[in-house]
């Protein structure tokens, strides 16, 4: 094989995780190893938005497009609005993220991004290197980071799928409040488990409106589109609505078995390999944190890193929480409403951002209807592996 096709590190998938790591490595200038990023898409589109609360170790602040000082949760006639000015809820558009990443990658010749290149197979060779067969040729490296999502991740304990479909809509009359995110507006039915509308107002006439379900199986886009149409009909009666952009996702919720993530210089990371927060499916912040740690390790000659394992307490509590949502979806609205009503927002933010203290976790459980959780404890304790 020509030296042109040999690399120190190959990253499979140039999405959020792949580009985040490649960016950090490219910033190291001459110290950067020879890196190849292989991406199936031939061009990037504004295919998603990443939202999260600003917090302690929040990164990528320069990419943020919108910030909101308040979030609200609503169930029936009850609405709880919470001031989050100190940790605003914020949004990054994928387009901005991709553009900045590509600009940075071209600045370092040690990093190559191959677009429109499909990974076909990955083989370990007798020389202890990895051979990556792609639609554009064969490449070799001693280390490989695989960020490609898998359809069936292995969960440790209960799992749910968070499926959502959203549209950025433009209307002709003022009707959104751009100072407050509708975080969860619960639907009356539990046909698909816990379901709610999520609304990000960009201004008085433009918003991203999503219908989201937490369900034991992924829910397809057609079903969610029909649900969203009826939500939009209810929310914006008589308005002429024009569609600007759409997004669909299926995110894993549950503790993913990361024991198999590392093997002989091959590491699996990303959404279905431990990046998603078990109880929320949010992954952007975790990916940024992982990318920083992994780049630091590589740059000092250390190993490629997988996502950190969930600490025992976090894992147990997340599993219990998911078990409750699975068994009692009708209690979902009560649980989330209680959380936002009874907890200080700083604690909720730490919980969402993976920075919860023991006290935060204790108070979180205390803020909720305890009997629901107690009924699930025996199942959690005596479940078979
Ligand atoms: C619509 C949407 C909205 C989301 N919103 C949020 C949010 O608000 N907050 C949050 O924290 N998280 C959010 N997430 C979850 C998570 O942050 C994203 O899914 C994130 O993009 C995951 O990064 P990743 O690198 O694991 O996967 P991706 O970004 O999907 O990257 C994987 C890459 O691998 C490539 N690939 C796959 N197979 C091959 C192959 N065979 N050959 C070559 N390339 C291949 C894909 O083209 C893709 O670019 C959202 C996800 C989606 C889909």
Bound molecules: flavin-adenine dinucleotide
The description of the largest β-sheet is: 8 strands, mixed
Q: Kindly report the name of the CATH homologous superfamily of the largest domain.
A: FAD/NAD(P)-binding domain
- Which architecture of the largest domain does the CATH hierarchy give at level 2? 3-Layer(bba) Sandwich
Secondary-structure element string = EHEEEEEEHEEEEEEEEHEEEHHHHHH
Oligomeric organization of the protein chains: single chain
Query: From the alpha-carbon coordinates, what is the Rg to the nearest angstrom?
Result: 22 Å
| Low-pLDDT windows of residues | none
Number of domains: 3
Say how many strands there are: 18
Q: How many helices? A: 9
- The gross shape turns out to be globular
Mean pLDDT: 92
Name of the CATH class of the largest domain: Alpha Beta
Strand portion:
25-35%
Q: Structural class of the secondary structure composition?
A: alpha/beta
Structure in words:
This protein is an alpha/beta fold and 385 residues long. The chain has 3 domains: 3-48 and 92-149 and 257-299, FAD/NAD(P)-binding domain, CATH 3.50.50; 160-253, Alpha-Beta Plaits (2-Layer Sandwich), CATH 3.30.70; 312-382. The protein is 29% helix and 31% strand. The chain has 9 helices and 18 strands. The chain has helices at residues 16-26, 94-106, 221-235, 284-299, 312-327, 332-342, 345-352, 358-366, 370-382, and strands at 6-12, 35-38, 49-53, 64-68, 70-75, 78-83, 89-93, 111-114, 119-124, 130-134, 137-146, 160-171, 180-186, 194-203, 206-215, 241-253, 262-263, 266-268. Strands 1, 2, 8, 9, 10, 11, 17 and 18 form an 8-stranded mixed β-sheet that branches. A 7-stranded mixed β-sheet has the order 6-5-13-14-15-12-16. A 3-stranded antiparallel β-sheet has the order 3-7-4. Strand 13 (180-186) and strand 14 form a beta hairpin. The longest helix has 16 residues, at 284-299. The termini are far apart. The structure holds flavin-adenine dinucleotide (FAD). The site of flavin-adenine dinucleotide has 30 residues, from helix 1, strand 3, strand 16 and helix 4.
């Amino acid at each position: 094989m020509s030296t042109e096709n040999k690399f120190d590190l190959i990253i499979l998938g140039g999405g959020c995780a792949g580009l985040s790591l490649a960016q950090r490595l490219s910033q190291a200038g001459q110290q950067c190893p020879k890196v190849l990023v292989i991406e199936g898409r031939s061009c990037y589109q504004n295919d998603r938005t990443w939202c999260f609360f600003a917090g302690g170790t929040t990164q990528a602040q320069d990419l943020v497009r919108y910030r909101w000082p308040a979030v609200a949760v609503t169930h029936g006639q009850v609405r709880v609005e919470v001031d989050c000015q100190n940790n605003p809820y914020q949004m990054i558009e994928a387009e901005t993220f991709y553009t900045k990443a590509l600009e940075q990658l071209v600045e370092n010749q040690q990093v190559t991004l191959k677009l429109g290149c499909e990974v076909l197979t990955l083989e370990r060779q007798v020389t202890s290197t990895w051979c990556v067969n792609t639609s554009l040729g064969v490449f070799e490296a001693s280390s490989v980071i695989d960020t490609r999502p898998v359809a069936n991740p292995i969960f440790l304990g209960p799992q749910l799928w968070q499926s959502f479909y959203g549209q950025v809509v433009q209307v002709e009359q003022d009707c959104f409040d751009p100072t407050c995110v509708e975080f969860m507006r619960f639907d009356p039915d539990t046909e698909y488990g816990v379901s709610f509308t999520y609304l990000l107002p960009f201004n008085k006439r433009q918003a991203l409106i999503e219908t989201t379900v937490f369900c034991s199986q992924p829910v397809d886009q057609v079903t969610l589109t029909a649900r969203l149409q009826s939500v939009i009909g209810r929310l914006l009666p008589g308005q002429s609505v024009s569609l600007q952009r759409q997004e669909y996702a299926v995110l894993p919720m549950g503790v993913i078995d990361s024991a198999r993530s590392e093997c002989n210089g091959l590491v699996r990371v990303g959404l279905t390999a431990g990046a998603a927060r078990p109880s929320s499916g949010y992954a952007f912040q975790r990916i940024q944190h992982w990318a920083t740690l992994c780049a630091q390790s590589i740059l000092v000659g250390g190993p490629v890193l997988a996502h950190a394992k969930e600490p025992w307490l976090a894992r147990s509590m997340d599993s219990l929480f998911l078990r409750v949502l699975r068994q009692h979806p009708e209690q979902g609205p009560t649980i989330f409403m209680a959380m936002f009503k009874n907890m200080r927002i700083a604690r909720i933010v730490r919980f969402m951002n993976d920075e919860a203290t023991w006290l935060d976790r204790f108070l979180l459980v205390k803020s909720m209807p305890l009997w629901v959780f107690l009924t699930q404890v025996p199942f959690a304790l005596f479940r078979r592996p």
